[in-house]
Amino acid sequence: MESAELISDSFVESSLQLRHNAAMLEISDLSLSVSIQGERVDAVSAVSLRLEPGRVLGLVGESGCGKSLTAQAILRLGEHQGVEKSSGDISLDGNSLFDMSDEQLRRVRGGHIAMIFQEPMTALNPVFTIGSQITEVIRLHLDMSAQQANQRAIDLLLDVGMQDAEQILKQYPDSLSGGMRQRVLIAMAMAADPDYIIADEPTTALDVSVQKRIVALLLDLQKKRNLGLLLVTHDFGLVAEMCDDVAVMYAGEIVESGTVAEIFDHPAHPYTRALMGCRPEVSTPGEALPVIAGQVPPPGRWPAGCHFAKRCPLSEDDCSQAVAADVWVKGEHIVRCLHVGDPS
Amino acid sequence: MSELKVSGLNKTFAAGGMFKAIGKAKRAVIDTSFDLAAGETLAIVGESGSGKSTTARLAMHLLAPDSGHVFWAGEDVTQMSGKALRQRRSHIQMVFQDPFASLNPRMKIWESVAEGLRVHRPDMTKQQRREKVAETLALCGLDASGMDRYPHQFSGGQRQRIGIARALIVEPKVLVLDEPVSALDVSVQAQILNLLKDIQQAKNLAYLFISHDLSVVRHIADRVSVMFAGQVVEQGSAADIFESCAHPYTRALLDARPITHPDERNRDNEVLIVGEGMSDSGCAYQPRCAFKQQACADFNGELNAAGCACLFPLNS
Fold it and tell me: What is the ipTM of this complex?
């Protein structure tokens, strides 16, 4: 359809409805570039992911691997900070996010796809009440009177386990603890009944006992509302707790993906194995932890071929050649490595 | 011999600033005692606001306690002052959490690392100081060729190695490690934990390890003190704490650890934290405790002979 740009918002809305059977958030071959000392270099390289309603997908990796850039690109955030798409596409139920107008994007953000950030301390505006911040989101996306929006805000806060919701609406963020603020942010994310939630390290800044309860809350809402949840994290414990599927990123690439059971029982990529092995929770006290030699190469200094080759115990000469994303495939389990053999 | 001993420490912070009139004084550390020998690691665990970092600063004598004593190698430092105290500070050194904030970005690495020598080894020439820095960096797994560079040229893990070298250069007997690996990635964390173990063995150092991460503590600690609301609620050997803890709070903290495998989802018999906040009278943990009884309202929080501050310990 040549006149795609000219179609009205309401048409896109209805076309989103029409394609509801194929509901899916899909990232295909996405590469993102950033500017480092005046040069554009790729920080995310040909990433493909697929998230369906009712599923929880974990995107795991260490800092600098590109997991947050990838997640932010879904809402086309980061573009103001100089992150550019160099190739690939992201589509919501078959509609490319890169073909959408600003107005259409505004409806998608929060309306269809909502985001929960890591820092509950900075994600709320300190000079507005909790109530005004939640009702703002509600009225932006739903056609509601102030009174209806207020009632919905109360319901949302009750949904996230805040009993004295009416009181909390009148309070300012500074009177809430970190765990309570994260609940408020989750309530805000749910405000317009989105289909997908992107949660970027949603529990990292919280105390461990609070973490547990936030995880339970997120999973509960995800199931009740049949949400597709993309969990961005460095923490395999959180993945074990929450996810159906996992994708492991290293230096801008997805190196391995599969179901959570498959990845935990038969991790195949040498990086996944090493990363899971150096966790102190699976160590023997008194013994040295296994380590990964060397450091993650920054964007722009990725080696040709396999990005992990220089640190890899299994690397051979052919690892300097380009390595396809799906060298090794067994059902849902896909591994980017020439030398895994049969991991089971 | 005890390299670090604290007894009966109390510290209260007055409400400050704009809200002085309406604020409430906060009892950050209440009647805290422990003893740390050479070659040993004592971990202090707790949530934010539990008093663990204040305890670390009291042990360093960066803060003066309201009451109680701090002994470095048997000497009461709360009685020392001025020059004598400054000279004794080489006994105990600190490694901070954030390797990005704890190094001066305008100082070359060697200048940052050598700072302690200016106070504690004024006799050294510049050349001698540089040699000492190179030697200490090597001990921390860093090549001396980087010593004329600036902090921004190093990764987080390398900066934490620099932070450790900076503490070690004055040859302390005790290191206070305040969340030394919690800002690091898992793979880097493993490298730093191994390094700390190696250095401890080589130098027979005593470690006071402050952390909220029980998996890290299980890996590195010989003994553990669990703090809640400024008080030690349970202390014991790492094996005892992790295998058979007695305090409901310790149990809840252990149960709140992330699982290690998806098969562990929906574990049974978990001890959960039921409420929020803390009580000002009686046992401070009452509002969150699933096992509280009437007598807890009058409990003074004293540790029993087994090292547990609870009237109804779980393993009895």
Answer: 0.85
